Amino acid sequence: MLATTLQALVSGLAIGGVYALIALSFSITFTTTRTLNFAQGEFIGVGAFLGVTVLYALSSGGEGGSFAALAPAASEGFRYPAAALAVGAALGTLGLLLFLAAIRPFAGKPGMSWVMSTIGFGIILQSLGLAVWGPAPVNMPSPFGDDVLRLGGAGVRPQEVAVLVVAVLLMAGLDFVMRRTRLGKAMRAVAYDPNVAALMGINVTAIMLGAFALSSALAGVGGVLVAPIASASLFMGMGIALKAFSGAILGGLDNPRGCIFGGFALGLLESGVALWQAQWREIAVFLLIILVLAIRPNGLFGRRALDKV
Amino acid sequence: MRHALLAIMVAGLAALAAGVVTNDFYLRILFNIGIYFLCASGMNVLLGYAGQKSLGQAGLFAAGAYGAALLTTSAWDLGPWTALVLSTAIAALCGVLIAAPSLRVRGPSLAMVTLAFGIVVEKVVTEAEVFGGAMGIYAIKPLTLGGEPLDMRQWVWLVIALGLGLHLLLRNLLTGRYGRAFLSLQADEIAAGAVGVPVHRTKVLAFVIAAATCGLAGALVAQQNQYINSDFINFNLSIFILLLVLFGGAGSLAGPVLGAVTLTVVSALVARWAWIEHFVQGALLLFALYVMPKGLAGVLDGLFRARRGEAPRRAEAPSADARLPVRAGAARDTPLLQAEALNKAYGGVRPARDVSARLTLGHIHALIGPNGAGKSTLINMLSGVVRPDSGRILFQGQPLGRAAPHAICDRGIARTFQNLRLFRDLSVRDNVLLGQHARMRNGFLSSLLGLPRAWREERAAEARVSEILRFLGLSALADQPAGALPYGLQRRVELARALATEPYLLLLDEPAAGLNPQETAELGKLLLRIRDQGITILLVEHHMDLVMAISDHVIVLDYGATIAEGAPAAVQADPRVMAAYLGTDDAAAEEASAEPELAVRA
């Protein structure tokens, strides 16, 4: 019993780390532009496949295996971190494109057309992914192998620990940047009021572009992190993004630390429910979110938005 | 009438085409057009009129489809026609479910919640055993005619007939009282509530209409295929339903049919390659958003509409003989409104501290005070937009309690806003007609069916509205979008809209803000004429000459508390008032010691 609980705890924290990372990525664009990427799920899926592709290209010397079945050796050594970096850079560039094509024409105008335009962008991205990689899921080997670690009787996969560690490091770094640097101060100023920030000499467009690049890069890295646990699929991102968004709502979209908390809470909740009834975990999670929204529409740590009349 | 004839002709042509075509593939395309038209018509009410984005319509489609499947195959073993009706009702109930969160959250969170709803339904029908998962449910009873199952051609005729019926019903609904109410939600919910539109109920209604039509479409698909499985229900279906409306033209009566025909045909052309079909959908979505924000209907409208001449930009002189519609029977023995010990705090800022006020029938009351004195907060509390923390408000001797803004408006308190809240895209006439919303007595069914009662009420409301427009000199501007008018005229339209609710008490929040001296003088005359029609006015204003010229009674607020009240001349002479406005040596010292946050503008 203790062992299974511990196991659930670790895998909950690992998947929660990914949710927290994506939740933070929502928060970054929402606080700076009042918009967010409804295609974040597709970005995660494409990130995972790009990761597989990079690993395949790096290991095409022979020991790597085929694209659909990469050998464990393919992600050894520098290759996995290199793939994560490459994916982060590629998706970051895609994020710039997303901002220019789908956000900027519609942000701040009534009707929230950016919801639809980011969805359209995602559909196009996913269909291109389908054309290149096909619909079948692909395995990505973990750089730490698949040998199960024994931790107080519980079996823990090394990748889960790695995901948790990387996610926490990334988030700690971002938190530092947001709170302690000039760049972070500029971002918070834009979040508070873009017009005033512009009057203070802050390049608002550059900040917004940066926010989308960062947010999309996080989605890509999230995909690379989670792919060895599940398997890379173009359809895997939707569920992750939805739960990450739920985590963000839980913690309050405009509060980055709240989002991180919400992501972890959701991961733990999900693995807790899975202990009891695996197939109901999604439903339990979303019911909880609707309940939270009904009681506190701005999340547990969100600011109350006052509509001035 | 012309619209109805045109719709019948289009449907007739489609039915004729179905009669001539022999190829089963083409019949199926016609059937799909009909199905998607049903989905799009309801979605148009929700998205195009009420302005609510739902990304989970596939879940409601599923409710109808699986409803029909289970009702005809399981132990219930109902007849196919009964099952069709019941499963539509089930989907409508699910619509209430999906509407519930929309009452609390808005914006991106609401879009995400509806998306999650669609995904949850998808998971449920995939996982739960009773729905058969990917295996699906077989042997769903098809609809029958005289004991025989319908053939493909009859199915097409059926969906055409249903589509025509739905279109005509929704047209009745959307061109009248309910259509305007939906549009007002899209434009500004706070203003909608303030003019008497029950915001929550109307929003739920829009969700239910969209749910019922999607459910009907789902049930028809299940019964026609006699089979349903979880592959039918996916996120792409939700997006496709949205795309139908956006591409065809959201908020246009012709939009759904244009969208359904174009997109079904395009999808059929590229359906051989799954990824191309998705690519095309994504591309069309972006294309519609960039190039034709009003959809195909908007493009066609632009082509056929002759260029209009220069629209008038000036109001004419108000007609002296026009009379405002007023409600009879204001009680004369009690004060019209009595506020007792109202308190309101936002954190450390307290814009109302034990404020009491007494308004007398037939008077013009003015509420003055420096910036941040709590004047707007008092107006907001009286109109139900803001709830007081404590204290009570009696209107005609009855407590307002926790009544919603629309209910307060219905009781006879109307208001305007300091920062204009007009429905900018609607015409001046529609803005003012929305003020009549709560005064009209035609219910949902009579509006939907276009019964004579609905028609009579609409005519009567139009007559009253033109009288109000004449009263204010706005008749020539009636057909212009309210947002296109100059600022001063927009203020007057807002006044017209408030008067259309036939109030006993009219709350005006800085009606002269931004007006030039001449306009301000005209406003003063207008307000006196309004009072002479028997309407009591409470006016927040900074133009002291206006206040002193027209008020019967003045209340002065400072830092959330009443510091003086009485006749204009008496108030003017009051030393405390002078201190509040100009400062004295004492007051300056007091102000310096006061907490700085109290100076924040409320």
Automatic annotation (TrEMBL), chain A:
Transmembrane segments annotated in the record for this chain: 6-26, 38-58, 78-102, 114-136, 156-177, 197-219, 225-246, 258-277, 283-301
Keyword Cell membrane assigned: yes
Predominant cellular place of this UniProt entry's protein: membrane
Membrane topology of the entry: Multi-pass membrane protein
Record-level Gene Ontology MF annotations: transmembrane transporter activity
A cellular component term, taken from the record's GO annotations: plasma membrane
CDD domains, alphabetized: TM_PBP1_LivH_like (cd06582)
GO BP annotations listed: amino acid transport
Keywords noted in UniProt: Amino-acid transport, Cell membrane, Membrane, Transmembrane, Transmembrane helix, Transport
Subcellular location: Cell membrane
Protein name: Branched-chain amino acid transport system permease protein
Species this protein is from: Muricoccus roseus
Automatic annotation (TrEMBL), chain B:
Domain of life (superkingdom): Bacteria
Record SUPFAM superfamilies: P-loop containing nucleoside triphosphate hydrolases
Swiss-Prot/TrEMBL GO biological process terms: D-alanine transmembrane transport; L-alanine transport; L-isoleucine import across plasma membrane; L-valine import across plasma membrane
CDD domains: ABC_Mj1267_LivG_branched, TM_PBP1_LivM_like
Subcellular location(s) per record: Cell membrane
Gene Ontology MF terms in the entry: ATP binding; ATP hydrolysis activity; L-isoleucine transmembrane transporter activity; L-phenylalanine transmembrane transporter activity; L-valine transmembrane transporter activity
Any one cellular-component term (Gene Ontology): plasma membrane
Transmembrane parts of this sequence: 29-51, 58-76, 82-103, 115-140, 152-170, 204-221, 233-250, 282-304
UniProt entry tagged with the keyword Transcription regulation: no
Lipid bilayer topology: Multi-pass membrane protein
Keyword Repeat set for record: no
Protein name: Branched-chain amino acid transport system permease protein
Organism placement in taxonomy: Bacteria, Pseudomonadati, Pseudomonadota, Alphaproteobacteria, Acetobacterales
